[in-house]
RNA sequence: GGCGGCGUAGCUCAGAUGGUUAGAGCGCACGGCUCAUAAUCGUGAGGUCGUCGGUUCGAUCCCGACCGCCGCUACCA
């Protein structure tokens, strides 16, 4: 029997001023597929996402729109929830950093850090550009001027509380050394390590210049700087400081899925903060690359942000989900192009998977009156399929969806190939036809299971068309992946092509 | 400047703790089939594995230099 394990998976919480774009969708679909896989293998899964709603920019945007920050974010946060619903993201909890539970957790967590002696008050001095409303390092300046506005910066001083990050350089290095798998892939781990090896400086974690944030419990003049409150969302959702049993159930065996732009926050600050608060650092941080668009970074200024919902309307949601996970190497940068999506859609979904289903159902209907035959126990495909499903399992467990999908498509290919050899459409009804079609249907059943995390809608539809009850998500993978479980006498439905060819 | 990474078929990328003919998918060419969404199946072309040296019986894989590209190098979420 498979022992039930805990699988707590998180995405970053998104800055609510953004519009959900394909980059966010990439993270969400990835995390969703992992969550779905782990539910399939009967793990106890908790999948968390949310929105980040504090900080100066939010306060400014709210003011510009004549609203209070809270009213402003109340209006914006649902855009993310709607988008994720449309992308079929199966999150279990959606956290907003403006919720009372979050204030409570942030205050109790940082109070622990404070009580443990890792927070102190000092003066922050920095070179500030009034136009940017941002601090600059001296090296960033252009002849002493702000590089953007080309105006002199002013030396500003602000009283801040500082987090004693410098105290954790050695402990972090030791942590990285002891748990080489904690931050993956290794290229991203190196990046974080390189940063730590420079030696860490203390960082200011509170502001007095704004009040849109979580108040510092021991000093009402200050609010926490938005990043410090944001990271703590992962603990809010599991009731840190409120429900010890729930907290211990999920922590520290967490999987943070993040983009490479926030490595420092998650792979340096966050583990250190956990140490400072006296809890274990997160067990796993998986860093993925960026999804580029035609080789360019997605950016507002470039005007190349892609709307995932428009794509889903155009290609179908599952096709977009498939493309995102198949055409990128999780951990490296990926590149989105309309052409590549179309190519994947046509060759993998229409020509292979969709067409296999279509040709099999046509022959079952015409030769066997629509009644499905059963697979052959000692089929030549059995060993191959078993090997494929083992690869699928390993790939999913190693967060390598592209490998799982590649393996599944090799099985689709084999099923197509054996149909060519036996050519059941040429034969008179009899065992030979039944055997080859039973095998092909069994392949489809297995593909549905392995594919379910990526394409929950489409694989459920294939599942239904080949006469199976329920959906692939109901199975227990540990037994369902064995060859030969497709039942005979199912009624096969010949429907419209699942993925009509494009262009 | 420092640290890290990358450079393999037209394209996107795998890969080997060094060992006979370097792999996949897409694209392309030829052939088969006609159940299927002009889908599918088979065969094939083609790459001195960035350059130059070194170690070795033997390197694309190890070492060095060089060329080219990229990331990080602190509180702008």
Summarize it.
The chain has 503 residues and is of the alpha/beta class. It contains 18 helices and 14 strands.
3D architecture notes:
The protein has a domain at 345-480: Isoleucyl-tRNA Synthetase, Domain 1, CATH 1.10.730.10. The longest helix is centred in the C-terminal third of the chain and has 31 residues, at 338-368. It is 48% helix and 14% strand. The radius of gyration is 26 Å and the shape is elongated. The strands form four sheets. The protein has a six-stranded parallel beta sheet with strand order 3-2-1-11-12-7, sandwiched between helices. Strands 5-4-6-8 form a four-stranded antiparallel beta sheet. Strands 9-10 form a two-stranded antiparallel ribbon. It has helices spanning 22-40, 56-64, 69-86, 100-115, 169-178, 186-197, 226-231, 233-236, 244-250, 263-277, 308-315, 317-326, 338-368, 380-397, 401-422, 431-451, 456-465, 477-480; strands spanning 6-15, 44-52, 93-96, 119-129, 134-136, 154-163, 183-184, 203-204, 206-207, 223-224, 254-259, 284-288, 291-293, 334-336. Helix 10 links the parallel strand 11 (254-259) and strand 12. It has 503 residues and is of the alpha/beta class. The protein binds one RNA strand of 77 nucleotides through helix 2, strand 4, strand 5, helix 6 and strand 8.
